[in-house]
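Readers outside the structure-tokenisation community will struggle with the description of the input data as it stands. For illustration, here is how one protein appears when written out as sequence plus structure tokens:
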Amino acid sequence: MADRLSWCEISTTALARNMLGFRAVTGPRVTLAPVVKANAYGHGLELVAPVFVRAGADVLCVNDLWEAARIRRIGINVPVHVIGRMTPDSAEEAVDLDVSAIVYDRELVSALDSASRRRGQVFRAHLKLETGTNRQGLRLEEASALVEFIDSLQGVRLSGASMHFADVEDTTDHQFARAQLDRFQSMLDRLGVGGRPGFVRSVSNSAATILWPQAHFEMVRPGISAYGMWPSSETFVTAALSSRNQIDLKPALAWKTTVVQVREVPADEYVGYGRTFRATSPITMAVIPVGYYDGYDRGLGNGAYALVSGRRAQVRGRICMNMAMLDVTGIPDVHPGSEVVLIGKSGQESISAETFASWCNTINYEVTCRISETIPRIPVEVSK
């Protein structure tokens, strides 16, 4: 890494194993559509997408159309499903990229219809139904009107419907999520669309895919767990208690950097901005070239540790924009160029994305997604 002193190693072995694990959970008849939005949850879209496809993914889900374009540019021709917002002025590109997409307004549907008819194609539209999350989605009356409108068109076909659970991950009490699922099925019945040939129902994120076989329907959309992380401790516990923890998730991402300077700090001197850390005795300090610009959260100051030579090195002082400081006192042979593990394993020690998230009072999703895209993602193969 001559040009960069920080990098992420992405285990293609783990990615493929996780995908195969989900296939074992769903069986062969369910469409497996991992979500690769947000730079594949921080793992690198162009790196991850072909690995998932080779491991058996049938569809790739993205949030934005530009992500679909990136997938097409690297030669991947499997179906791509856009689950975020598309604007009417993007309709021609959407048709040219041959994607399917969530729709919830007439303006977009009209634009897609016009663009499809000009090209002699039919766009595959999926309804997003409102069942309790109150984010994207249509209530019954709105959905009914949009179904009627779509059915009147030649260039758009209603190909599916989806919803999103509000509270399937963060609790072991799934009454609300079950009510959402019942509401979804009821809405489909009242709309009279669920029985259409080839109609795709999709509700299951990582947690629902693992916990609820009855919610797999025609397509599942695993997100965070496709990258080897549990959506929450509650999901892990529920899976264990319900005997549905057959899937063996393997985290795929390790974040590493190197020491760029080692210096001695005398007793009673401060480290970093704001003088938030004062050495009570002489310490050896290592500077690393990673800061909050890179996604190493400013809140980690004086509360986190990294791994150097298999030993824990406490963060001292505030995290800077492009660097941080570690207390390496007592760790032998630390020098410029020594490897530092921010997420991953070193010797017998490890730092998981969940541990990292606990230091920042956030979730593992945010930790990996916020690692700057300027940091290289390097594919590695590891032993199983």
